[in-house]
Amino acid sequence: MRSSESFFFKCSAIWFLLLVFWGFAPSFYLADYFDPDYHLPQHLVLHGVVFSLWVLLYAIQVFLVGYKKYATHRFLGGIGLVIMILMVPTGIFPSIYKVYEGTMTIDGAGHNVFRLFSGYGLFTLAFVFRSKGFLHKRFMLGCMVMLTSAAIFRISFDVNMQDNQLFNKGFQILPALLLFLLDWANRKKVVLIDLISPVLVLGIFFLADYFWLSSVGELAMDLLISIFVKTIV
């Protein structure tokens, strides 16, 4: 059981690294190759650096646990907390700045805001339960599922599946579903915590518009813009 679970999480680390690199290679990692004349705005460069550090740290942490380097894992966990704190403003700002500019609708940005805050929330749970390995790992995987949706959205254009929500959402929740099946096979019971991120992904997809298209949603977006945009711009 332990060996199969360890192998799964190592595969998840590689999966997320490849996913993010593929999704953001044209616009960030290999931007000079794809379009030498295009220069990313500074806030997107900062966003890309911080989120890249997070994905890389997730992969490193998974392999450290796999090789029983627990002291180093705990040390890097503190660094991970700092990176996650930085991910809040560097993640929310790009998501809502276009609303502030008038180039994106509230509901369009709102979906991403919900996904980001869901990821931040799952990380918070992972940090709270960091001494309980079973819960910690699953909350961290859920966090990664929520925070890599933008990469999948970009990949969908590469394979001409941008309008296929079954592809987009299915691709996003695939790691969580595979963990659910692995736990079911190994433990002979349903582990509901594995399904937190799939429920969040589908819940946001089907229900977010009801919030963001309401007067309360408009007020919430105005508040976010006041906190994360107007204090900087």
UniProtKB/TrEMBL annotation:
Organism of provenance: Ulvibacterium marinum
Keyword vocabulary terms for this entry: Membrane, Transmembrane, Transmembrane helix
Name listed for the protein in its UniProt record: DUF2306 domain-containing protein
Transmembrane segments: 7-25, 45-67, 79-97, 109-127, 192-213
